[in-house]
Fold:
Amino acid sequence: MKSFAQSGRKRTRRRAAANPRPARTARFPRLVGTCADAAAALARLRVAIVGCGSVGGRVALHLARCGVRGLVLIDPKKYRPVSLLTHECYTETIGQNKADVMATVCRSICPDLEVRVYVKPVQDLLLSDLVEADVVVMATDNLPAEVDTGQRCIWLGKPLVHAALHGETLTASVRFFLNSDGQGPCPACLFGPQEWRDHDANLRRYSCDGTAHDPCLEGTGVVPTRSLSFLCAMSADLATNQVIRHALGLGRSVGDTMVEYNGYTHRTVVVPLGRNSNCPCEHVQYRVVRSTRQISDLTMRELVEMAGANHKSRDLLLQIPNMRWIDQMTCKCGAVTVVRHFQPYGDLCTKKCQTCKRIVVAGPMDASGAVATAAFDSVLDVPIRRLGARAMSQATLRDANRAWLIVPAHREARQ
Ligand SMILES: [Zn+2]
Ligand SMILES: [Zn+2]
Structure:
């Protein structure tokens, strides 16, 4: 313990009483091979974590302590009594949502950390919900969530760090998918026949009850992941190491590699990850376009011009989440009623037939999720809001070769 002058001690105590928080960089090492402002680089980093359980929860804690700028925490599940065996949780938190609890703990570690929480499966997020993240960490034992997260990260060009473990062999592994151009590997690229069988079993359960819940529950044919607390921690530690290495450019690139540690042999292997040309995911990267105006205030012409696309192009398609476009409806009498309106999925669209005066209801054949912008000709200069899509936080455009994601310029972090 260093000694210090009496006056200095008084001043230090007074400051400590007013502000017990340590400086973010008080324990930050001078990492070999980095510039002096490595901590400042981390202070700009925003990381999304899909799955805040025994591995993802610990990654969140590590990153909060490393002094990152922000975290997006995604998990629909709650702590159960059995979580005490593997998670960073205590009896007081049983029954509470994992992402919510981790957000509270991370904020208590670092009050100026920006934290956004989604208490829902990753499949229910909008693409734009992940657009501000610099890196996505995935730590879930749910295979459909892995495929879905992998697909979103390809589209958005986000590096994806997949932390996993195998309890029986004391193996912790981390795969780093760089997603620099959409042409690299993704989690689904690495699936074998058994993974696809488990994926399909899990998907059937997901579609039945609408939640991506614990696969350990009956009826899925999928057994729960069994692990030991320290192995979960090791997987989280390796994953955080890869995030930090990538963010600060430490050592050789970790992009498109897998690192695996085995507790029996103490052997660590690093292998490159390759793309599977038969992967069912769409290996196309979206160009993200930020609109300074509300998207629903834009006209279709403005939206398309903002993306640098051509609205007359026959293969240019627009998609708005949870909305379908109804161009026209055909009555049983044969008369056609022009609608040209967006309609939320699940809402009935009815019009009175001008010929026979019967009520016409839009059927599946009248509606489409993706609409060709060429179909907008007469409403090209009408704000999208007036075409029925009032509250929208993203729109996507795509043609045969390219894809664009249009999002508002500033998305406020929801606390
Ligand atoms: Zn793939
Ligand atoms: Zn009619």
